[in-house]
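Hello Y.,

Per our agreement to keep a running log of every chain we model this quarter, I'm adding this entry. I've kept the format consistent with earlier entries: sequence first, then predicted structure.
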Amino acid sequence: MAASTWASPEIDARIIALKQTKGLSHTTIAAAIRHEFGVFVNKNMVLRRARTILGIDRGEKAANERLERKRRAEKAERAALEPKASRPVNVPPPVVTLPPLASVRAQALDELVAQAQAMGFYELPRPVPPPTPAPLGNGKCTFPLWGDEPPTHQYCDKRTPLGSSFCPDCRRICFYRARAA
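Predicted structure for the entry above:
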């Protein structure tokens, strides 16, 4: 007997009949359906079809409900075993006050200045701010001309190739590679 589709009433009836037989696994039922009806069926297809026919909801919702019931039971057991930690009713929670961060920094800086003056320094040297490069893409070379001296903010200003920040001469200085002998 050949069935036209996997979900035919004959196959459904046979699945129910085999399912009600005690001790048959879904793999065994799938093999019997394959042999009798000539359709490809595996154990997962039989299991899904049997649940659909019998109206058994074992989906995600049922699994979540079981998990939630288990969590509630465990929580109740823990609550019964552990006494509640409580604070006296009229006592406010402890308050921690820290000095503002700016005042802590200022105090640390004052201590450093005092230490420097104690060692013989009367004024701390001020750090030199890094030079700000000229805006890129303006067609002028941005190679600084001041070297190791204090910045004069003077740049090469020669014409640069498209997409480069340095002229060919300054690029040779920046990216010089020693040649192998």
